[in-house]
Amino acid sequence: MFFKENKSDFTKEQISNNEYLISDMVACLRYTSHFDAGFRFLSIYDIEINHKTNERILISYGWLLWSKYKSENSNAYDSEYENDYFDEDEETVDNSNFHYDKNELIQKIEVLIPILLKINNDYSKTLTSNLFSIVLKSEKKKPTPNWKLINDFCNHFNPEDLSTICSTIQVERKGQLKDMELASDMENWFAYKTKSLLKIGEWQECFDTSKKAIETIENFHYSNEVWFARRIALSKKNLGNTKETIEELQTILRKKKEWFIQKELSELYFEKEDFEKAFKYSIDAITNFGPIEFKVDLLYLLGRIHKNKSESELAFKHFSLSKLIRQKEEWKVPQKVFDELNQYEQQEITISEINKLKSELKEYWNSFKPKQESSKNNNSNKLNGEIVRILHDNERGKVGFLKSNGNEHYFSLSNTFHLTSKISIGSNVDFKLIPAEEGKKERVRIISIINKKER
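The structure corresponding to this sequence follows.
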């Protein structure tokens, strides 16, 4: 308001040549969420963004870009956890997003980054780090990340120019606040870059960059040393070295018992026509922790394994479930699934029968579990406790702590669990503790709510 009332007292040139006025006006418009007005203001006063632009203005302009990008990607970028770690998921080649229309904001960020890197002070480093993080993290959190965009954006950074400082945040664990060290910008660059290369099938570069990551980074976070090793192994596989890939994935599996690594080993043994080992690893994968919806390609693989073992009925059922889950989730069903199903004379299994088919196959898969593992599901280790705290109660479910024998245990319930709506502070529950395994934390499984009178 003050600017509007007094700007007529000054020439356009006087205003545009005042670095303090320009930078402060841009900052004020950003703080009041008038982002587009900030860009218009710079345009009206002919402020160009290049290596000659005043540093104060560049920094204000950069934070304006950051705020604008953040506001446009609020659903994909959780502001409460801006430094959320780089998690891992099933890594497969994604050919769906090789081409894209580059967002205008990203274009502006890409122009600004090399300018900021040359300034090289604490203000520019902080801004560069935030621009780097917000673009990559928000893109990765989208339902279908554009890995080509992520790869191209990483190319605007030399990892050696990025910060190696690991900041620390506080997180709540078992009712206590504990320090958690976060990965540096350099480590995150290697994580995003190598994953994007794997997704778009650039195997040699993925191999070379993953090796450089292991050689360069001194202190890894979030098991990144395992994931870099995995990308090296998968790159070797696609470069034609199957034997070394199997050996390296088996080594990784001893450190990280993840279902998608078991699936990859199953695929490799299937290619070698060792169907018994392929079956073993596929069963390990399908019974391992992870939503069945993520395992549609594994179901297809199980169908192929059963087909090669001349077990046509089981093959048909696995192919069918792979198709039905995709249809239920409204995902595209690959032609290869239809091609397999068309070879069978059995009556088509309809979407209304999906739960019955899931239950039937789950019972079949679990029949191959070792007896001592299955015994975990009995009630001999049942415990009793009281809900003492609820941290979150929303559309996603409830999380909190229960107390048993003087110890507190963290629990998490989805909104689809039949007891979630009945759980409240003071509820007396029967539960089981699922012991911590390598790569997994201790988990609580609530079995039932018990009236205190029954005790």
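Confidence is low (pLDDT under 50) at residues 76-90, 372-379.
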